[in-house]
Write a structure and sequence with these properties.
With about 230 residues, the chain is an alpha+beta fold. It has 2 domains: about 90 residues, 2-Layer Sandwich (Beta-Lactamase); about 120 residues, Histidine kinase-like ATPase, C-terminal domain (Heat Shock Protein 90), CATH 3.30.565. The protein is built from 6 helices and 13 strands. Strands 1, 2, 3, 4, 5 and 6 form a 6-stranded antiparallel β-sheet that branches. The protein has a 5-stranded mixed β-sheet with strand order 8-10-11-13-12, covered by helices on one side. The chain has a two-stranded antiparallel ribbon with strand order 7-9. The protein is elongated, with a radius of gyration of 20 Å. The model has no long low-confidence stretch (mean pLDDT about 85).
């Protein structure tokens, strides 16, 4: 069945949209909502829709800050005109500074940089550093000095732990655009049982004018564009 032009607009919307049944089953959703469901369950989103719905039939927009994984939102609209279906649209904050020029640096093996940081932080330290690496990330263009400085500061946020886990993985289906060209993303995720939130605040200052994009919660994630030439 051919979709209408109006439906195509919704499908390619920058903001996620989901239509639920009255029981919470997903009836339809656009591409952005599919990506969002990798970070949050459909039950949580359905509860969000029912919580912020108008008391009577119609539409209600609420400005509220929400965060699911790396996705951050500044508001939502909930609408329904019968008891059978309810729709939810979330308004996404820009995750990245999309107008920035393409990052500069040298072609580098990211695993070597991470191993270097782990080695320097493990010297005379009782902490066990656990690695979980996807081995297929190619060499990328990156500012090595800035990256090493950032990753070392991240490890300092987890020094009060017996073990620190470092994970490198692709961000499936996600990309960033520089100078009208799309680049895939991968992430370096550092996690442990405890995090020093005072030290983690320094990371935002360090990355303000850089091309590294971080999420700081119970774990710290660096999202990096995969620029290979």
């Amino acid at each position: 069945m051919k979709i209408t032009f109006e439906q195509q607009w919704l499908e390619h919307d920058y903001n996620p949209f989901i239509l639920f049944s009255s029981s919470g089953k997903i009836i339809s959703l656009n591409t952005e909502a599919q990506f969002l469901l990798g970070c949050v369950s459909n039950n949580e989103l359905f509860e969000l829709a029912t919580s912020y719905a108008s008391l009577s039939f119609g539409f209600k927009t609420t400005f509220i800050e929400l965060e699911f994984g790396r996705y951050k939102f500044f508001g939502l609209t909930v609408g329904y005109d019968d008891e059978e279906e309810i729709g939810l649209k979330l308004y996404k904050m820009p995750s990245f500074k999309i107008n920035n020029p393409r990052p500069s640096g040298e072609l580098t093996n990211i695993y070597s940089l991470v191993d270097l940081c782990i080695s320097s932080n493990s010297i005379s330290s009782p902490i066990t550093y656990v690695k979980e690496f996807d081995p297929t990330i190619p060499e990328i263009v990156i500012n090595s000095n800035m990256f090493i400085k950032l990753l070392n500061k991240i490890y300092l946020c987890f020094q009060e732990n017996e073990s620190i886990n470092t994970k490198i993985y692709y961000r499936v289906g996600e990309h960033i655009k520089f100078e009208d060209k799309k680049y895939s993303l991968f992430s370096i995720e550092v996690s442990a049982e405890n995090i020093n939130h005072e030290k983690s605040k320094e990371l935002e200052i360090l990355t303000t004018n850089s091309n590294f994009y971080i999420d700081v919660k119970k774990k710290i994630t660096i999202n990096i564009p995969m620029i290979t030439e």
